[in-house]
Amino acid sequence: MLDATVLIIDDDDDILLSARLFLKQQVKQVITCKSPKEINILLSKNEVDIILLDMNYQKGASDGREGLYWLEHILSIDKDYVVILMTAFGNVELAVKAIKKGATDFILKPWENEKLFATLSSASKLRESTRKVKKLEKIHSSLQKDMTRGFEHIVGEAEVIKQLQNTLVKVAPTDANMLILGENGTGKQVFAYEIHRYSQRKNQVFMHVDLGSLNENLFESELFGYAKGAFTDAKEDKPGRFELADGGTIFLDEIGNLTLPLQAKLLSVLQNRTVTRLGESKERKINVRLITATNMPLNEMVAKNTFRQDLLFRINTVELLLPPLCKRGTDILLLANHFMQVFSSKYHKETRSLSSKVEEALLNYAWPGNVRELQHVLERAVIMSDGITISEEDLQLSPQRFANNNAMPDEMALEDMEKMMVQKAIDKHKGNISKAAAELGLTRAALYRRIEKFGI
Hints:
The protein has helices at about 15-25, 40-45, 65-75, 90-100, 115-150, 160-170, 190-195, 220-225, 240-245, 260-270, 300-305, 310-315, 330-345, 355-365, 370-385, 390-395, 415-430, 435-440, 445-455, and strands at about 1-10, 25-35, 50-55, 80-85, 105-110, 180, 205-210, 225, 240, 250-255, 275, 285, 290-295, 320, 355, 390. By secondary structure, it is of the alpha/beta class. The strands form 5 sheets. The protein has a 5-stranded parallel beta sheet with strand order 2-1-3-4-5, with helices on both faces. The protein has a 5-stranded parallel beta sheet with strand order 7-10-13-6-14. A hairpin with a 6-residue loop joins strand 11 (about 275) and strand 12 (about 285).
């Protein structure tokens, strides 16, 4: 059965009855009417996919002029309507004229059922294809508009953010490799995408690879690709992420999680600007802009011989250090209002403001999860809010995480702080890894690695 609604317009009751009896077993819905004057009402009330339109309505008429008139009328409403014309009078010249005016097909009455179904089947595929193309055009249009906007995704007026934006504008047009440092949830991916948007590669692909969630055994096949037969499930050739990003930007997130052997393989690719698929010996040239990010102290890791110094030199031509949210002052309120507007629109809420107590609470909160945590808090608050103003009760902030609390002293080592946050999240969700990972802004795989690392 075709997933389509078919509208049949014919002044012959027998034709309408015959069509309905046959098509009700073949299509999702059949709508019939005797007069084309009902077209506007029917099209306004129904999501019609295919229109079967008779060519003649006046008694004795056979020239098809009425059909051509109503064809033009339908296409003036929406040029993407699929219209199939019907007539009892075979006329090649008329058929050609109808096709030129926008008809999808032309069928003679009385029809053969198999022929009618085949015609409708082709028309249905055309309609679905047209819809997909229109959707892709909208997505493309949206992306094009997005590329012309300013720092839409970077919300903030703090001096440190302005300095980062200035650096971004200077460096983005170059092909310099960039390393973005910062705690989880500070917006490293947002900055990476902004670099891409302001680069010479902005019209090419932006490939995000979360190395933290990538299984070590799949590292080479995912990043460099594989040849058919390279391993048991390699049933066809497949390009890796570097090949797919050719001409564009590749963003390697959580690069600090790579083991030394994987660091060596990545370094070889970056030095030679070539990749070799698993199961092949052929080198393939790649042309990508490299952006990497991590929340881990790479310089300390180099000193401990857990991160290659030559790889660090290769990836950090320019560094961006993103500040934690608690160091951004009133940017917290700017971001909160931004997220409030986003989620009010998403959930069709009328929430438009934050109460003074809410603003005070937001400014005094420690924000261990940074911008990502603020985003989640505001989303929940908008959902829970009953009026136009978000109240303290809507926020549901943890009292243990306010800035004046001693649970997170400034002198605490970054690794100890991370361990404590992981432990708290796991305890809070009673060992539920999925929920704990979501709160921390990590993937399940990344959280498991931290559990193993800290011996939790």
